[in-house]
Amino acid sequence: MESLLIRRAPGVLVLVVAIMLQANIQICLGRQILSTGSARPSDDESSTTQEVLKSYWIHRDHPDSPVSAANTYNTSSQSERIAAAARRSLTRAEYFSRRVLDDSSSGNFDSPVEAVVGGGEYAMEVSVGTPPQHFIVTIDTGSDLVWLNCKPCIQCIVNATDKPFDPTQSTSYHKASCTDAACTRFPTPTNCDVGTGSCDYFYQYGDLSYTSGIVASETFTFTALDGSSFPIEHITFGCGQNESISAFPGVDGLVGLDLSNFSLPSQLSLVSGFTDIFSYCLIPFGGTAANYSTFYFGVPETNISTYTPIYGNPVVPSLTFYYVNVTGISVGNVSLDIPAYIFDISSTDGSGGIIFDSGTTLNLLITAAYVAVRQEFENQFDFPIVSNYPYVCFDVSNATASTIYPNIVFHLQSVSGAEPVDFVLYAENILLQSTETGVLCLSIMSVLTGTTMIIGNTAQADHEMVFDRANHKIGWAHTTCT
Predict the structure, then answer these.
(1) 216 lies in which domain range?
(2) Residues 266, 125: one domain?
(3) CB within 10 Å: which end of the chain, N or C, has fewer?
(4) Sequence-separated (6 or more) residues with CB below 8 Å from residue 45
(5) What PROSITE patterns has UniProt attached to this entry (predicted)?
């Protein structure tokens, strides 16, 4: 099936041709010519050419997803999907917080996040090597390392292609030596193999799942508009030869998108023609059975003007999550009496704070904020509660066309520091359709004080999200992503 996407930017018409063959998700690259003086973020006045990569994200619960195939998607009801998403969300938040406290107390590097336990939330196709070999990987804004299942396998995961990356079949594969910067700066402890001279890594996640192997570099290939190949050389990745089998069903590896130096956008930003920006448009939770979400590396074709700054963790600088400054929350037209310090990062141990994260499904608030949001939402949304743990579900069988579904609004610091900007959760972001007819479940759950709070992918759905890393800000615009 072929699809043609036409997006208009100020002074330029951009055509991106995307070719999708059945369940395969091809990454396509388009070239965007920007006029000098364009108002786009991070435009380089000295260069009028910006590269833009386009790909598709497939949700783990999509029928074509290799993760859903590994987890018998067709036997899961919508209620089971919500329950599973809740468990994954709580586990992920718990691990974020453990990571913060581990790093702040001891300085020991454990792992970036529990990003892919259970297969992650989104996957996409990547092409690696010369000639290219094709793989399905988890992609995630809360993780840094790029790694693939590689030959020779000591213990390889049961993966999407059932064929690990074979370095012997690639002329562009380079094994990092112990003195290479790729080894000495790798975001996890490495060891020098005296016998082979290779740089070995071991990378453990929060549930004790892991990947280990050799630090290497390779050519990642994308497809240009005219159908020609567009290779990008010297991408550092972990060539994994030993992985825990149960933790990564259906995928061949992981591509991290966080702020660390080894994430894929950070590496692409060093390539001539690329700006350190990525964006995506996620389809709503209930729409994952029929569509793909779109994703771009490079300057987006958008007129987004609403941005909030990205912050680092002042106590634990090694953390590379997308922290933002929330100043308050409203439900409908009611501004909640939640002290602003509730959303702050602790100056003592770096705990708390709130992040945008594509790898967490539901939205997580510490108890004090959650109780205030839930109580006011129930005041305005007067329907019977049919389930109360770990998330709230409402019986809306008596809803009519005139029923009001109150929005929930996160007020965030603006880039200018003046009036706050609003990130609005609409009905599709707040209420998830259960299996039972007439039952909707709240997409917000409570976590303990000190836990990292999360604006998850259900909140971000039907928003065009722009992570302008070059200018340290996140932007958004409400739209239709399906």
Answers:
(1) 56-82+108-297
(2) yes
(3) N
(4) 36, 37
(5) PEPTIDASE_A1
Domain final residue, candidates 297, 315, 339 = 297
354-356 and 322-324 beta bridge pairing? antiparallel
- Asked if the structure places residue 101 within a domain, the reply is no
Strand order in the sheet with 24-25: 2-9, 12-21, 24-25
Domain-located, residue 38:
no
pLDDT by residue for the chain (482 residues), tens only, comes to 333 322 223 333 233 333 333 333 333 333 332 222 223 333 333 344 567 787 888 888 877 777 665 554 444 788 888 888 898 898 888 878 877 876 655 444 343 333 344 457 888 888 999 999 998 888 889 888 899 989 988 887 666 566 899 999 999 999 999 989 889 888 777 898 888 889 999 887 655 677 899 999 999 987 544 555 678 999 999 999 887 755 566 788 889 999 999 999 999 899 878 889 999 999 988 765 557 898 888 766 677 889 999 999 999 998 899 999 999 999 999 999 999 999 999 999 999 999 999 989 999 999 999 999 999 999 999 999 998 878 899 999 999 989 999 999 999 999 988 899 999 999 999 999 988 889 999 999 999 999 999 999 999 999 999 999 999 999 999 999 98
d(CA 279, CA 296): 5
* In-domain check, residue 127: yes
Q: Are residues 254 and 381 in the same domain?
A: no
Active site residues: 140, 357
Are 289 and 376 in a shared domain? no
Residue 465 and residue 397 share a domain: yes
Residues 240 and 214 in one domain: yes
Residues 331 and 355 in one domain: yes
| Same-domain pairing of 173 and 125 | yes
